Amino acid sequence: MQRVLAELMAARGMMPLLMKARNGGQWSEAEREELLGHLRRMAHLSPYLVALMMPGSIFLLPAYAWWLDRRRQQR
Q: Could you tell me where the beta strands, DSSP code E, fall in 8-72?
């Protein structure tokens, strides 16, 4: 659990970096490397946590619960 929290806290700096391109700025080479590092760290987290961080994911919670419950029944 602490690993997940540490990864999520490390990803806090990712949002301003992503918004830089959205606001018309250009990423430097160092910023691109930092962004790739953030994405790689997030890819190592559980896919469920990454999916829950996406906008609108609160509406997918019933589908996640159904899918997880279905997986448990097959075992």
A: none
Written as six digits, the tokens of 73 are 């029944």
Question: Which DSSP symbol is given to 56?
Answer: T
8-state DSSP, 70? H
Angle at 51 between CA 48 and CA 55, to 5 degrees: 150
- Residues with pLDDT less than 70, the chain: 1, 46-48, 50-52, 70-75
Domain ranges in the chain? Answer: 1-44, 47-75
